[in-house]
Amino acid sequence: MGERIPTRHSLALSPSCNHCSLSNLCLPLAVSDGDMGRLDEVVNRGAVYDRGQAIFQQHTPFRSCYAVRSGAIKTSVETAEGDYQITGFYLPGEIIGLDSLHAEEYAGSAIALERSSVCEIPMDQLESLSFEIPTLQHHFFQLMSQEIQNGQQLSLLLSRKTAEERLASLLLSLSSRYERRQMPPTAFRLPMARNDIANFLGLAVETVSRVLTRFQSQGLATINGRSVESLDLEGLHSLLQSPGT
Amino acid sequence: MGERIPTRHSLALSPSCNHCSLSNLCLPLAVSDGDMGRLDEVVNRGAVYDRGQAIFQQHTPFRSCYAVRSGAIKTSVETAEGDYQITGFYLPGEIIGLDSLHAEEYAGSAIALERSSVCEIPMDQLESLSFEIPTLQHHFFQLMSQEIQNGQQLSLLLSRKTAEERLASLLLSLSSRYERRQMPPTAFRLPMARNDIANFLGLAVETVSRVLTRFQSQGLATINGRSVESLDLEGLHSLLQSPGT
DNA sequence: TGATATCCTTGATTCAGGTCAAAGAACCGC
DNA sequence: GCGGTTCTTTGACCTGAATCAAGGATATCA
């Protein structure tokens, strides 16, 4: 279990725009101030997990969703046959556990990639709340269909793209997600190991490494170990255009 | 009249169950008779689509989910770059459109693979209904997280499995889904073209064909064109066990 | 500070599955 | 039944990425 940190207001709602305390999610939520307060009471803000620690694990009873506040999380599924697949990387402002919403148990595991602060959203309480606050239900539906669509994008990536395209996609995805958080989109830290990237993209570690160095020599990116120092967003993007048809 | 006693309508009832058009969904739903009646009013039962016809199309306004009653449907997404990926095959008793639930537009298209009867579930009406029938909301949450998990399984399939494993997975999946519908699990009709199978599994058509004939010669399956005549479920299943680790 | 495990890169080799090509088989409208 | 699609199979060949192997780079911890 992650260590508890004292309840603080760092997840404060911005009163101007009516986002909920899940506000990092950047989805507008029109609720009254009163409802907003009740929502805040439910959300249990801030536990900290060290690198490698599990936020939750597959086949354990589902209790909460989790919003990442700092750090980074990877989620994964494991089949009966023992295959292990990373299903996503989650950055601050993103929510994990949606795949298990209203299921008996978690449908996968979530592991901290580095020291991460995570706020817990207990589902039993939220469920009853969402009857009183219709918008909230709507909100979660939206998040879930977003999640389904992410999965479909991933499928497309895994079945139809070359190694270079996969890496380009990942870098661009990270870039735009950092940007959305008002962080530099062409210089950031890769929170995950090459190994994890490889698994996520369905490649061998060696291939990831090779393609990354190839990007370097083509001037598409400057990457030093885990730190991305510059990206040619244009150039990477143009890799994705399939010339045919 | 006294209190209405909630009746448990198991949605796994035979397709002829005339209580609820959603009945094919095979998920237990505990609602009162009255609620069930109202639900039935909302659901618009039975439009028929010919082979190749679109039930809905990507980037058109989302209006309804659809439950397949007979026939078969394929769903697909298309990216800005023009990649086309089939995201699923839907058999009678399954629901499509969940990925777009509460989104502005459909996140993909749905095309009939053969003459299919499909019942429409208009979301605007269902939304207000689900406010009054808590179980219904729960029901849809469940369906959606199921859908996310399907997607994750697909990702795993596409990134980590060999051509043989992919085909085996598909055959086994179809088999168990037919079985759930009280149909023979080892002899059924493949509703989709090799082309579609290939696209779905991330393979070339030729590979699909080759693997299928290899299955024949190994006695794992007897397949004649689009009709599966016999399957060695045991044998196919054992293909999926990854021996390593 | 050095010992040790983990992570990352690079090279050489191999192979599963893609691509190209072409011939049957099934289906459709007339 | 007949010409034209569209679907399916089979063969020959080629390539992108996996695998095997091994040497650097980083991190972790006593």
TrEMBL record, chains A, B:
SUPFAM superfamilies: cAMP-binding domain-like, Winged helix' DNA-binding domain. One of its GO terms (molecular function) is DNA-binding transcription factor activity. GO terms for cellular component: cytosol. CDD domains: CAP_ED, HTH_CRP. InterPro entries: cNMP-bd_dom, cNMP-bd_dom_sf, Env_Response_Regulators, HTH_CRP, RmlC-like_jellyroll, Tscrpt_reg_HTH_Crp-type_CS, WH-like_DNA-bd_sf, WH_DNA-bd_sf. PROSITE patterns: HTH_CRP_1, HTH_CRP_2. Residues 161-234 form the HTH crp-type domain. Keywords: DNA-binding, Transcription, Transcription regulation. NCBIfam families: PRK11161.1. This is Crp/Fnr family transcriptional regulator.
